[in-house]
Amino acid sequence: MNGKIVVYSPGRANLIGEHTDYNDGFILPFAIKRYVKIEIEPSKKFRVFSEQIKKGIEFNTLEKTNSWADYVIGMIVKLKEHGYDVKLFNMKIDSDLPMGAGLSSSAALEVGVGYAILSMMNYDINREELAKIAHECEVEFVGVRCGIMDQYAVALSKENHALFIDTMTREYKYIPFHLDSARIYLVDSGIKHELGSSEYNKRRKQCELALEAMGKKSFREVTMEDVERLIEPVLKKRALHVITENERVLKTLSALETENLQLVGRYLYESHYSLKDNYEVSCEEIDFMIEQFEEYADIYGARIVGAGFGGSVIVLANENFERIFEKVSQKYTTKFGIIPKLLTVETSDGVFRLE
């Protein structure tokens, strides 16, 4: 076993392809240069300390605690199930990733913990397998029925690229992400969602019911005609979002190839309004922000990002955006009494060890 190891595990943003990853859809995420930092070294007990909340936990048994520690305990459990030896360790966790902002802090923690443990134990690390184990931790141990996007993006991303993933086949490819005249920004709305909330799992269930009603096994078999035949209005709306969002991802790929940022921006706005009206995962605060952004030509496009019900907005804009943001921020604060935060975003490699 090694001595102290330091691992940086990035957050992720998703350019487009929201709520499609658990529906056999297409997604286009990328890792960002904001990280969960994990220090690990061999110990005589399992000890984990969070710098962010100034709390630690010691444990001997690998049982659920219904706290943040479950992301660590769950990874130990899942690594062992996959045949990896996990010795006792002391772990310190810190982060500059805002919690609850839709930037996938939980996947960053899971993948980072797994990478740190495997590094400490001197295993060769297969990043795809690590992503799958982290996904199992989230779904089976923590209990959030998320898709694979977050764990894949955190484990597999490459700087200056987006990661196009077909979630049905789990195949992926790197898409050059050169914006030149534009930048990606993330605006933290200050409204926090709980990803484990009943609404998220409810959306998954509604998608399953929509497939059942259409007599299909996967949304990849579904046509617009199938959707039109759905009688139950809510199921029709959910299905409509999934198949149109898949189309938008493919159209965004084409627009990126020709560096047509106006088109990419249009698809972002279209995605937002589908998430608002068809998937119903937006909120008043974020809708207000998007409406403000639409008034400025310097902003190509924007949409809610992440699970929804708050979190962040991803924005594609030129460098005048910071000035525009100040104006919109003042209106937002006046209306809602909340100060939004602006994060500039740079693409990052996936999880890595500090050598």
From TrEMBL:
Molecular function per GO: ATP binding; galactokinase activity; metal ion binding
InterPro entries per record: Galactokinase, Galactokinase_CS, GalKase_N, GHMP_kinase_C_dom, GHMP_kinase_C_sf, GHMP_kinase_N_dom, GHMP_knse_ATP-bd_CS, Mevalonate/galactokinase
Keywords (A to Z) from UniProt: ATP-binding, Carbohydrate metabolism, Cytoplasm, Galactose metabolism, Kinase, Magnesium, Metal-binding, Nucleotide-binding, Transferase
Gene3D superfamilies in UniProt: 3.30.230.10, GHMP kinase, C-terminal domain
Domain GHMP kinase N-terminal: 71-157
Enzyme class: transferase
EC number: 2.7.1.6
Protein origin, superkingdom: Bacteria
Any Pfam family hit: GHMP_kinases_N
GHMP kinase C-terminal domain segment(s): 253-332
Originating organism: Fervidobacterium nodosum (strain ATCC 35602 / DSM 5306 / Rt17-B1)
Segments forming a coiled coil: none
GO-annotated biological processes: galactose metabolic process
Domain Galactokinase N-terminal residues, every copy: 5-38
The UniProt record lists the keyword Calcium: no
Record-given protein name: Galactokinase
Keyword Zinc-finger carried by entry: no
GO CC terms: cytosol
Family in the record: Belongs to the GHMP kinase family. GalK subfamily.
Entries under PROSITE patterns matching the protein: GALACTOKINASE (PS00106), GHMP_KINASES_ATP (PS00627)
